[in-house]
Amino acid sequence: MDRNEVLLVGRLSAEPEDHTLPSGDTATKWRIIVRRHRRQRRGATLTDSVPCVTFSPETADVVRGLKPRDYLQVIGSFRCRVFGPAGAKTWKYEVEVTSAKPVDTVVVAEDPPDGGGDGVGEEVQGTVTPLVPRRVLQLARAS
């Protein structure tokens, strides 16, 4: 059975743009920045900028309500669109989004803002950096 479902969680790269099509419909386009798992150099953070489009006014309103660098979740389908004359075709890949929603993020403080406590497990309000899993380089031996 074929299945074409995409779920992305990342940051809005810039303000979305509306494009009016010849049919009168509006296509709202934006890019979502998604971090890759580290497989390259140490300390390097690699990202993908994934083009997204929606034809749904409700979904477009949600995305328009966000600011660049805000986190969001999108659900849709992967699409390949072909443009241009027969001798000079251009292939474009994008996610056709059917729903989008903002994502709340919580951060565990490394250094508590008040200078007290050990900082482990304390939530910091008003911060928009999400928790990032850290790789365990080696495990401690059990005694």
UniProtKB/TrEMBL annotation:
Pfam families: SSB. Keywords: DNA-binding. It comes from the Bacteria. This is Single-strand DNA-binding protein. GO terms for molecular function: single-stranded DNA binding.
